[in-house]
Amino acid sequence: MFTFTSRRMAALACVAAALVLLAGFVFWLARFTTARSNQAAASQPPLPAAGSAQMFLAERGPDAGDPCKGLFTFTIGGVQYCTQGFDPPPSDVTQDVPPIDFSARAMNATIVCDGDGVSGKRVQVLYVHPPETNRYNQYLTSFQQWAKDMDDIYNASAAETGGTRHVRFVHDGGCVATVLNVQVSSANMADPFDMWNELSAQGYNRTDRIYLTFAETSAYSLGIANFWWDESLSPSNRSNRGPSYTSSPKALWGGSNPAHELMHTLGAVNASAPHSTGYGHCYDEYDRMCYKDDASAPAMQIICADPAHEQRLDCNHDDYYNTNPSPGSYLSTHWNPANNSFLIGAASLATTWTGATSTDWQTASNWNPPEVPGAGDDCLIPAGMPRYPVLSHNVTEAYCQGTLTVAPGAQVVDGPVGELHAETAVISGTVQVLDGSYFDIGSAASVRPGGLLVLQNGDVGMAFDDGGALSVNGTVRVTGTFPIYGTLGPANLLINSGGLVEILEGGLLTVDGTVTNTGTLSQTKTVSQNATTSFLVITATAGITRYFGVDITLGNVGNMGPTSVAIQGNQSCPAAFRTLGMTVGRCYSIAPATPHTATLKFYYRSAEAGPIPRRWPIT
Amino acid sequence: MAYHLTGSTWNALTSTRGGSGEAMYVQATDVNSFSPFALKDPNVPTYYVMLPVSLRQ
């Protein structure tokens, strides 16, 4: 059940009485008259026009000490939420939007795929219905199309500031939004707050979800969402995590109203925004979030003159949605929902390691803001900290569901027997994966110039859950047995120009995907007489060879001892090589401890053979 | 052919070519001076790219 704050309840109660007479929103009557009837006469705000959502929003305003600052409040599972209240329907609203006629409009519900479709922060579309009505099958493809229509609003609006943003929906393998069919009680369908409470009780309460609801109800004909009213420019902004909820009754099914309601949950429009009404909306039309939501709100202004901009977010992108805000502008210094991590393409707002207390990843006081990185958060390990994370299994495991960034000069020690999980990783400092440790990546990891990734004996090695690549522009040092592999697809190794993968004595690297070397691969092994020693033979975990290097065969001439072989691959080699006019894009360096006469076998891929352009004049 | 760079001179090594498919190789025997090495097919011409030249007075 929800409860209104008492301060505004008096006004709401009397307004609600008017509502019953004027608009027929019966469900409000019982709530107001039974809960607060004795306060109903305490205030008599002016009655708004019949059928307008602002009727619900009388006598409000920023209020020190009130976490909802003048908005309405309710609870879900004992947690206080805020809401801007009901949003009005368009003038041509009908009571029952029919399914999309796909004979008249081609279905194009394919959204932008992101990862496995379920991991991390996502918007979950729900069709919520009472027991007596279930039109899921009739509307499923329409819901999916409307999800795409919503996404189009978000991305087209992002394009106005040169960016791209897509709603990160829960989606299936075909990149179509997943719509869950959820039944709640008939009584709870009549009230969005009660419906959300029941959804929460059914388990739709994940912190990495926003539940976007198509509600099978005509008990109200106004959209509604919770709105956290948090202006802080921080990854811990309350709008940057769930659970949050919207509800669009069947009179408002489509792309527009859900897009509006979703934007509330993402954090729009905050009271300090230049064109804020002060009640969760804006007054600079045309704009998907703007309307006069209260009698005391500023007069509406037509600043973006094109009426078509009613289907776009943030007229002039100065209040709540800008993918590229100018330094010093409002959205560069306050919460910018365009960077909400429920959106694909959002700029990073990383939780930053401080090491203020210990080396324990799971200690909140080691982070700024002081909370352990949560669902979808990016994680930054900066330079100059007094301590750095040290991870060990079942003690200090690390989960970064966003991007893990290890800055130059910073480090993470994973193990021995540690667990480091990140959706993606960017390593410009040092990461050591020591004996028996996990290093799980969602899809991509890169070692930047100056970065160092040490791979010792990995228990399960480096797993790319979605498949992907380890891209190397810095150094990867393999000192033990270490597999790199993908779970849903292969994991590839890309050694880029300037990158180095060095396999030290005793090291064994396997890669289940491709190995592409346009940088340097090297290996050190001991070469003994009367034997052939193979260097840089990288196999897949299944035993397939991904890369061939050099064989050194010695007769009965004595041992070479520790010998290093390096291959600069797939490239035209440095200046001295140009005079040769080499026609295979590999340069081989061999450095034995003790030289002896040997037979060398230089391997190369057939694709690496062929004319290599030389520039004239030769330098 | 495998070549070994000695100072500023590339010396051709006694080489045989083999392999198939993806794994081609050039084998050189009696190698007693090491690094660096490069491979060249004498039958494949090298492309020369003429760079623009600006003249100054």
What does this structure look like?
The complex is a heterodimer of chains A (619) and B (57). By secondary structure, chain A is of the alpha/beta class. Chain A has eight helices and 38 strands. In chain A, α1 runs antiparallel to α2. The relative contact order of chain A is 0.07. With 57 residues, chain B is mainly beta. In chain B, strands 2-1-5 form a three-stranded antiparallel beta sheet, with no helix packed on it. A two-stranded antiparallel sheet of chain B has the order 3-4. Classes of the chains: A alpha/beta (619), B mainly beta (57). At the A-B interface, β36, β37 and β38 of A face β1, β4, β5 and β6 of B.
Distance between the termini of chain B: 45 Å
What is the molecular shape of chain B?
A: globular
Of all protein chain pairs, which has the greatest interface, and how many residues does each chain bring to it? A-B, 40 and 35 residues
The biggest beta sheet of chain A is recorded as: 12 strands, mixed
Low-confidence blocks of residues of chain B: 51-57
User: Describe the biggest sheet of chain B?
Assistant: 3 strands, antiparallel
- Annotation field: number of helices of chain B: 0
Helix content of chain B: under 10%
Radius of gyration of chain A equals 30 Å
Proportion of helical residues of chain A: 10-25%
Mean pLDDT of chain A: 84
The stretches of 5 or more residues of chain A where confidence is low (pLDDT under 50) are 1-64
Number of helices of chain A: 8
Alpha carbon gap, first and last residue of chain A: 79 Å
- How many beta-strand runs of chain A? 38
Oligomeric state: heterodimer
SS strand fraction of chain B: over 45%
Query: SSE string of chain B, helix = H, strand = E?
Result: EEEEEE
Write down the overall geometry of chain A. Answer: elongated
Number of strands of chain B: 6
